[in-house]
Design goal:
The chain has nine helices and no strands. With 144 residues, it is mainly α. Helix 5 packs antiparallel against helix 6, helix 5 packs antiparallel against helix 7 and helix 8 packs across helix 9. It has a domain of 37 residues.
Length: 144
């Protein structure tokens, strides 16, 4: 691959990160051109798209099958980063698969923690803990 093609790929990272089904026909053509230029990029892009299929699984049984297929594909890809990712997913597969059976996330809690951290950063420290605690409670009351 020539150097200009590599620069084109670097500038088109947004297209490569986007799901293929959400691309416009013109964007699909651009992505197809980039994938044609590099077999390693084609492999990585295919693995990315397959991983979204795992995430779209409706229950833990279908997720288990899709995840095991993805791990096998990643470990056989010859791409070091995907091999490492596949090995990591093997180690954490029990917890990952459990998440498909539970409809709840800790997103709200993480959001509140982030708001508290931002408050702390903006306040440069309160003189009294009681005032800081009251400010957090006041801020949290707005979100519920």
């Amino acid at each position: 691959m020539s150097f200009p093609a590599l620069g084109y790929i670097k500038r088109s990272r947004v297209l490569l990160n986007k799901r293929y089904k959400f691309l416009t026909p013109e964007q699909k053509q651009q992505v197809d051109l980039m994938l044609y230029a590099s077999s390693r990029l084609l492999t990585a892009y295919s693995l990315k798209e397959q991983f979204f299929e795992v995430l779209n699984s409706k229950d833990s049984d279908s997720a288990r099958m899709a995840l095991s297929r993805w791990i096998m594909a990643a470990q056989n890809s010859g791409l070091e980063k995907f091999i490492n990712c596949g090995n990591t997913l093997v180690r954490w597969s029990k917890g990952i698969l459990n998440s498909f059976g539970c409809p709840y996330t800790n997103g709200f809690t993480e959001g509140v923690n982030n708001k508290i951290k931002v408050l702390k950063r903006n306040a440069y420290g309160y003189r009294s803990f009681r005032r800081f605690r009251n400010r957090i409670l006041h801020m949290s009351a707005i979100f519920t």
